[in-house]
Amino acid sequence: MYEQVGGQAFFDELVSRFYDGVANDPLLRSMYPADLGPSRKHLAQFLAQYWGGPPNYSALRGHPRLRMRHGPFVIGVAERDAWMYHMGEALAATEMPTDVRTSMLEYFESAATHLINKRHPEPPEGTRRLPLR
Using CA atoms, how far apart are residues 82 and 61, in angstroms rounded to an integer? Predict the structure, then answer.
């Protein structure tokens, strides 16, 4: 897939568009450092490697360990949805075959959902609960 989409330049552009959205997102922005440059580089290298490109990400950062790297951040459904929105917009702005777009969206949906680590909030004190059977 790496070669099919045009190599590293494709992933650099995709990630640039994605982070342009994140930079102005009030829900997601606080999860990232002030300087988005390193985050852009890491994600572009990770995606390029994942989709068949050179192992530059692993050479610089080691095993991706996505859950571990995202563990310090509270990620719920709203955060996942916001992340998916910006990635979807970035993908929509790029030229690619439909089957490639579908594969990428499926991967992003699966990975983003896998990173959810925020449980649903407990009901307020005194809320009636249905009895367990």
Answer: 26
- Nearest CA among 45, 40, 37 for reference residue 61: 45
pLDDT at 85: 95
Rounded to the nearest angstrom, the gap between the alpha carbon of residue 93 and the centroid of all alpha carbons in its chain is: 17
Look at residue 133 in the predicted model and tell me its pLDDT. 43
Rounded distance, CA 91 to CA 97, Å?
A: 11
Output phi, psi for 72, to 5 deg: -70, -10
Beta-carbon contacts of residue 80 (< 8 Å; ≥ 6 apart): 112, 113, 115, 116
Instruction: Tell me what the pLDDT averaged over the chain comes to.
Output: 87
Spans of the chain below 70 pLDDT: 67-68, 71, 120-133
CA 124 to each of CA 17, 94, 120, 131: distance values in angstroms, whole numbers, following the listed order? 40, 45, 12, 17
The model's pTM: 0.83
Q: Give me the torsion for CA of 28, 33, 34, 37, rounded to 10°.
A: -100
